[in-house]
Design goal:
Elements: H1 23-43, E1 52-58, E2 67-73, H2 111-131, H3 142-169, H4 171-183, H5 205-226, H6 232-270, H7 278-282, H8 289-305, H9 313-321, E3 342-349, E4 352-359, H10 364-389, E5 414-415, E6 421-422, H11 424-430, H12 438-447, E7 478-479
Helix pairs in contact: 1-3, 1-4, 2-3, 2-4, 3-4, 3-6, 5-6, 5-8, 5-10, 6-10
The protein binds fe (ii) ion (FE2) (2 copies).
One fe (ii) ion is lined by residues 155, 216, 219, 245, 248.
Length: 483
């Protein structure tokens, strides 16, 4: 069967890439499948593998109506391989090969580069499932539990997406990399996941929402730039992944937004006007706004690290080779080769944070990070609208990009959220005001009691405006059956 918009569910591995006619890849994937299921059962959502979850499954790649909703036991979810449609006549749109026809096979000279990019992207997908595996137990509602599991099964599918590319286009090393993706573990000392933020814990639901807002958004930016790739199968894979990714960021933004809403409502009902009266607010069983700010500071800074060094010859090579572009590359009005262009980069120069013009080619990471920060800011403004509407005098704000960094220009700098450079002692003294302290974590943990009754929500989070698939907030999104 040729490539279609419709997904073929008659095979063990649903797909729209004509897998039945590609016995070599089908066989490789079928051999990988049991190991994947094993991984899902041991590292996926803990304790809910036999529950019926109201999940969406992609049945087509048509942007309208690609999903079907139904109760599914997660291990029976139909993880499939879905690529966005091929655009006839698509070209390499940037770099040294600009104007050549897009590649349907991996160019030999870029094989190692492409493999590395696909492996790094692939590694983040199972990592987040591992990070989130205990959260079901403290879900603040069945609605939220369902959203968590939806995100989890889709991250599983994203792993499939990358594994398909590895197995189809990279021969033996591709198969080895596919196996390794099932062997690394988030937070493991010996075999950690590849990137820092994906080895951190996601200990509570506020972390989960911040993670899906900030870290899945890094995922979006990476996928957007890989969707520009001259290697067409990678571009098409990422294009479809982006349609799923949008839901993950929705979960994060509305999750934090609903927590803010619950806090503001409780403050108003109790007549508390001062958002910084943390003790009084916490007594109401909601998360105070300054603690939300600290959580945002933490997740934002960890996510910034995922963009790599501001100035990077690797990034320049990826771009020049045509394998990884910029955010919305084709909409940018320039030569798409960056021969003489410069780009302002924030750097640490003789003890000061300064903007310095660098060759735009080496500043690709910085540019993508700037686009990311702008995207984050829009969401933060929507959170601020919720606070404003409640009439509370408090605003959330993204910290300075130099704050709390472990990679790039500012990794050895202590900077406050407003970008003031501090000595070690000052930093140590004030750090707890800016990132969550042990006590903050303990308090949030104390609110994480399961709330699994239909239509009920934990005290610290407001119900959603609308349900999933036009169902109400009181729909039985998960029929819990604990193994
Ligand atoms: Fe993903
Ligand atoms: Fe995601």
């Amino acid at each position: 069967m040729p490539e279609t918009a419709h997904v073929d569910y008659s095979t063990k591995i649903p797909n729209n890439v004509g897998l039945m006619d590609d016995q070599r890849v089908l066989k490789a994937l079928e051999q990988w499948h049991p190991g994947y299921l094993d991984w899902w059962k041991t590292m996926g959502p803990d304790g809910f593998q036999t529950s019926d979850v109201y999940l969406r499954t992609a049945v087509s790649i048509d942007p309208k109506g690609w999903a079907k909703f139904d109760y599914v036991k997660m291990p029976e979810y139909r993880w499939g391989i879905l690529l966005a449609p091929r655009h006839e006549g698509r070209q390499v749109n940037f770099g040294a090969h600009k104007g050549e026809p897009a590649w349907q096979e991996v160019p030999g000279e870029y094989r190692a580069m492409l493999r590395r990019l696909i492996v790094i992207q692939g590694d983040t997908e199972p990592a987040s499932v591992e990070q989130q595996r205990f959260l079901g137990k403290t879900a603040p509602s069945l609605y939220d539990m369902r959203n968590l599991f939806q995100v989890n099964v889709e991250e599983g599918r994203h792993l499939w997406a990358m594994v398909y590319l590895l197995q189809k286009y990279f021969g033996k090393d591709g198969r080895e990399e596919a196996d390794e993706l099932l062997n690394r573990r988030s937070g493991d000392d010996d075999k950690p996941r590849m990137l820092g933020a994906f080895n951190e814990e996601t200990p509570d639901w506020l972390s989960f929402f911040m993670f899906t807002f900030f870290t899945d958004r890094d995922g979006k930016m990476q996928l957007e730039s890989l969707a520009q790739s001259g290697f067409d199968p990678l571009s098409r894979t990422c294009r479809f992944m982006l349609t799923e990714e949008a839901h993950h960021m929705f979960v994060g933004e509305t999750g934090v937004g609903r927590a803010i809403e619950a806090t503001c409502a409780a403050m108003k009902a109790a007549g508390i006007e001062d958002a910084n009266d943390i003790a009084a607010v916490r007594k109401l069983g909601v998360i105070d706004l300054p603690t939300m700010q600290k959580k945002a500071n933490l997740h934002f800074s960890l996510s910034l690290d995922l963009f790599g060094s501001e100035v990077s010859t690797n990034a320049a090579n990826y771009y020049n080779s045509g394998v990884k572009g910029r955010f919305q590359e084709t909409r940018i009005d320039d030569d798409h080769q960056l021969t003489n262009a410069v780009y302002p980069v924030s750097k640490f120069v003789s003890g000061k944070i300064k903007m310095v013009d660098e060759p735009a080619l080496t500043a690709i990471n910085m540019r993508l990070r700037d686009d990311y920060v702008a995207d984050c800011n829009k969401g933060v403004e929507r959170w601020n609208k919720v606070i404003e509407k409640a009439g509370i005098g408090f605003r959330l704000k993204l910290p300075h990009v130099a704050f709390h960094r472990h990679i790039g220009e500012f990794q050895n700098v202590n900077a406050s959220p407003d970008g003031t450079v501090l000595g070690d002692t000052d930093w140590a003294k004030q750090k707890d005001q800016w990132v969550p302290s042990k006590a903050d974590g303990d308090f949030i943990q104390s609110l994480m009691a399961p709330c699994w009754e239909r239509g009920k929500f934990a005290s610290w989070i407001a119900p959603p405006k609308v349900g999933i698939d036009n169902r109400g907030g009181d729909f039985e999104y998960v029929k819990i059956h604990q193994a």
